[in-house]
Design goal:
heterodimer, A: 374 residues, Rossmann fold, Oxidized Rhodanese, domain 1, 14 helices, B: 78 residues, alpha+beta, five-stranded mixed beta sheet
Chain lengths: 374, 78
């Protein structure tokens, strides 16, 4: 043990060498390396939690930097789990960090959770929160959970020593059309720092077996008033039973559901971000141009898969639905049709590649010329 | 009876208030809830916990005018 690094912990009789060794032996899985994940990871790693897994499929965007304090300008366009690992490895080389740059789904959750003592939820949507809860119930792992809304934060420890779970506190999620995220609503930049640090504190207490763990209570913090309060809530066996009932079918459940096309919001991705995602193996570029029409740039020459639009419906089933798909072709109409087709078929993350400036004119002429030829 | 009701999270946006005094006839938490849902119909669409004196309470609870009441919805941001 590096006694100099951990000296301030070793001085505390509540921790000492034995406590620090517990931290060094602990295995913690953090879901989401965003606003909450970044600050809490800093303290878990600095404090010497020996084994840490980080799950995040997202990439660093400039709008994240106001609160996701592990990332700098050089991290833009890089996967968050990988960028966090890079920064954290320098912070404390004692810690073994594994980055999982993929989306948490019912297919991979149980296998991932099995290898850790404790799960931390810093995700940004209700679907993943129910998924994380149910997977924790099924694998019998305590769950440290934090969440935010504009200027307020919540925090609780669920499924701790047979205590109440997330479903006991919140049996129901808001309907899809009444859900908004930080990216749509905004959030005070320092708030995830406050809640994330409180989450790290709960993690340390659980591992050290000291103090009073925030089980059966929700802590609410208001950044506007500076007030903190605890709200007690009961265990609801019928809600825990719902998660246990999923035992045999869990991996087939689609927690992320189908998207609502009443309010279609097609997602586009810039060439630079697409290039990063493809190079990291997170995304696949699907070129749906007809045979003979080439993709607009050479960046992707060896990394794209070519499926002409007419054959997409039949051939897309061979593709991995968990992987991010980026559609490109000369025709925006076909891009959008392919986008809808893939979303409806169950692909989790689909984008259309943005055109470069001046590219669309070239595409139009090129596409039209080729279409005549075929 | 007059009680003070606090709103949390998205309910602040939906009601336009952080707290307010509510006057209602009966005594149970269920009665208060239906008065609130009449005043703010969007509450029928949203899940929330009824909190009395810092504990999630069942709707059959009889209220006192000194009770601290809050409506707590889930948050999802991270």
């Amino acid at each position: 043990m590096d006694k100099q690094r951990y000296s301030r912990h070793l001085l505390l009789p509540e921790i000492g060498v034995a406590g620090q060794q517990k931290l060094l032996d602990a295995k913690v899985l953090v879901i989401g390396a965003g606003g909450l994940g970044c600050p809490l990871l800093q303290y878990l790693v600095a404090g010497g939690i020996g084994h840490i897994g980080i799950v995040d499929h997202d990439i660093v965007d400039k709008s994240n930097l106001i609160r996701q304090v592990l990332f700098g300008t050089n991290s833009l366009g890089i996967n968050k789990a990988k960028a966090a690992k890079e920064r954290l490895s320098d912070l404390n080389p004692d810690v073994r960090i594994k980055a999982f740059p993929s989306r948490l789904t019912s297919k991979n959750a149980l296998d991932l959770f099995k290898d850790y003592d404790l799960i931390v939820d810093g995700t940004d949507n209700f679907n993943t929160r129910y998924l994380v809860n149910d997977a924790c119930v099924l694998t019998k792992k305590p769950l440290v959970s934090g969440s935010l809304y504009k200027f307020e934060g919540q925090l609780s420890v669920f499924n701790f020593k047979d205590g109440p779970t997330f479903r006991c506190a919140y049996p129901e999620a808001p309907k899809d059309n009444l859900r908004l995220s930080c990216s749509e609503l905004g959030v005070l930049g320092v708030l995830p720092g406050i809640i994330g640090n409180l989450m790290a504190n709960e993690v340390l207490k659980i591992i050290l077996e000291i103090g009073e763990v925030l089980s059966g209570k929700i802590l609410i913090y208001s950044a506007m008033t500076g007030q903190m309060q605890h709200i007690g809530f009961p265990k609801r066996p019928e809600e825990i039973a719902k998660a246990i009932a999923l035992k045999d079918s869990f991996t087939t459940i689609d927690y992320h559901g189908k998207r609502d096309f009443g309010q279609e919001n097609i997602q586009y991705l810039s060439v630079i971000l697409a290039k990063n995602l493809v190079a990291e193996g997170i995304a696949l570029l699907v070129d749906i141009n007809q045979k003979g029409v080439s993709v607009d740039n050479d960046l992707f020459q060896n990394l794209r898969i070519k499926i002409p639009f007419g054959k997409l419906r039949r051939r897309m089933n061979a593709l991995d639905k968990e992987k991010t798909m980026i559609i490109t072709s000369a025709s925006e109409v076909k891009n959008q049709a392919a986008y809808r087709m893939m979303i409806k078929t169950g692909f989790k993350e689909v984008y259309i590649l943005e055109k470069r400036k001046g590219q669309s004119e070239f595409d139009k002429q090129n596409g039209r010329k080729k279409e005549k030829n075929t | 009876m007059i009680v003070n009701v606090k709103y949390l999270g998205m309910l602040v946006d939906q009601t336009g208030k952080t707290e307010e005094k509510i006057v209602f006839d009966n005594k149970s938490l269920a009665d208060l809830d239906s008065v609130l849902q009449g005043k703010y119909p969007i509450l029928k669409e949203l899940p929330y916990n009824l909190v009395v004196n810092h504990e999630v309470a069942s709707s059959s609870l009889e209220l006192q005018s000194t009770d601290e009441i809050a409506l707590l919805p889930p948050f999802a941001g991270g």
